[in-house]
Amino acid sequence: MVGKVIDIHRLNLEELMGVVSIYPWYAGARMELCSRMAGAGSLSSSQLSQAALYVSSRRLLSELARRGGNYADADVANLLKGAAAEPAAPAEQPREETPQEFARRIFVVGGDYFSSSQYRAVKQEDDNIFSSFANSGREVVPESQAAAESFDFCTETLAQIYAEQGYNEEAKQIYSKLSLLYPEKSVYFAALIEKLDKN
Asked: Measured between alpha carbons, how far is 36 from 42 in angstroms, rounded to an integer?
């Protein structure tokens, strides 16, 4: 359905605002509204930023914002007369500034906020409570046991290889560890353990 064509240049300001409120994405109407507001000298930055959301060329809006002021030469003669009548104020002589020394502190982002000298200044004897507590709770593990635990990895493939070679107990241990590691598959691993028990 083709409606009546409206020339936005012939609309008054109130009708143009109505068109913009009904069709907010209509960039031509927004641009016309901004140019009329700039011509009247009442284009605000909020209206300009709102129009920038819909107008594809920010350059046009920038030109509207810059030319918004009235720079006519009508009152130049009056300004010149007023400036000539006022006595000239003595020019302020520039002062020589003496360079001041500033202590420059550099802070590394992500580093310590306090320097090591500041830590040493506030350190007390009873500050090592946590480190002594942590050291007292450690238990000594024999190297052979630690080495065995470090190579202790469990995969389903390894358990299948053990089962094929006849090492059913090792395969059961791996399946039980896997069922603890992956509780969502515990029923599957329990079925594999039962299968090993039957063989």
From this structure: 9
Give the residue among 176, 180, 169, 170 at the shortest CA–CA distance from 191.
Answer: 176
Rounded CA-CA distance 178/181 in Å is 5
What torsion do the CA atoms of 17, 72, 75, 79 make, to the nearest 10 degrees?
110
In the chain, domain spans: 8-66, 152-198
Predicted confidence (pLDDT) per residue in 137-168, tens digit = 666 656 655 555 555 778 999 999 999 999 99
Distance of alpha carbon 191 from the chain centroid: 49
Radius of gyration of the chain (CA): 42
Tell me the one-letter amino acid at 109.
V
Q: What is the pTM of this model?
A: 0.33
Type of residue found at 112:
D
Instruction: For 33-87, write each residue's pLDDT tens digit.
Output: 888 888 877 778 888 888 888 888 888 888 877 775 555 555 666 667 766 666 6
Cβ pair 43, 65 in contact under 8 A: yes
Worst-scoring range by mean pLDDT, 14-28, 143-157, 179-193?
143-157
d(CA 176, CA 195): 13
Buried b or exposed e, range 1-21, using 16+ CB within 10 angstroms: eeeeeeebeebeeeebeebbe
Count how many Cα atoms sit within 13 Å of the Cα of residue 151 in the half-sphere of its side chain.
5
